[in-house]
User: Fold 3-isopropylmalate dehydratase, small subunit from Candidatus Moduliflexus flocculans.
Amino acid sequence: MITGRVTSVFGPDINTDDIIPALFLQQSTDRAHFKKFAFDKYDPDFRERCRQTPQNIVVAGKNFGCGSSREQAVYAIKDNNVACVIAQSYPDIFYRNSLSNGLVLLSVPDTTGLEMGDELQVDLDAGTIRNQTKGTTLRFDMSADDKETFKQGGTIGRVRAHLEEILRAS
Assistant:
């Protein structure tokens, strides 16, 4: 179960340069570096809002994460205590980068009922988003394999768990 507060609501077509401007990409290879510049030019208050809440949820319109395939965009979001992103759609490359790194992405047909400050509970197994603030529920579809991968912290977490299992058996 993922619980959190909606701390950012964006419209459609938020691109990876909005998330992490290109000028910061070559400054470090340390993924923690990128959280300091998340939405630096697009929404400079994003980081401060994320510091106020231990589990943040980002809501957006269609095509969240479009643009270049920079994996640093996922780091910039996730490392600011974002538990999941709920949007109408995502480009495949952003979805795959998020799946690899354990940033849970949920697709719903309409995000207009989700607002700043709403307290949400996400049940990956049931495919539901419960808005505790408004008493409403949204449904989402996700493959069983993707659900399991997100629950294990992404592809990287899933591989790590598998390697630990192999080592324990040795």
In short: The chain has one domain: 2-169.
